[in-house]
Input
Amino acid sequence: MNYANCDNNTDLISGVRQATKCTGAKDPKHPKDPKQLGPLVLAYIGDTIYDLFVRTELVDSTTLTAHGLHIGAAKRVCAKAQAAAFRRIEALLTDDESAVFRRGRNAHMGSVPKNAAIIDYRIATGMEALVGYLYLSGKDERLSQLMRIALHDTAEIAEQAEK
Output
């Protein structure tokens, strides 16, 4: 599946939903509104979904070995790369999406990785919170649209991983 070349492709997210039986936070054990979840909980889910988009795009767009895929993915999911990805979509966000991002960015974190700038780490956490929110809200088309734009340079990263 190559979601990057489609205008309205939510196959990746739909496949995850079917595999996990997640239908957009309709489990009675959880709040019905993902806005009620803590920002770090949203980021926890968003981290996985973001990583899945990156890995899927790398597999679809390259012929890298498993090691090359790992290196390419690591370059795409680090805080600096996620902050850059967010900057590509920032102007496209709705007011609600911006609010979710800010909640994630401003969340109190216990520690920051030593190899990441604090601002990049905070922006990356906000980005992950946004991705988690869109996924749990069932806004698959919007999530796919934003991720296509955010990850538009995946091929360049993959080429660098080959070197």
Summary: The mean pLDDT is 82. Helices lie at 11-20, 39-61, 66-77, 79-89, 95-106, 118-136, 140-150, 154-162. The radius of gyration is 15 Å.
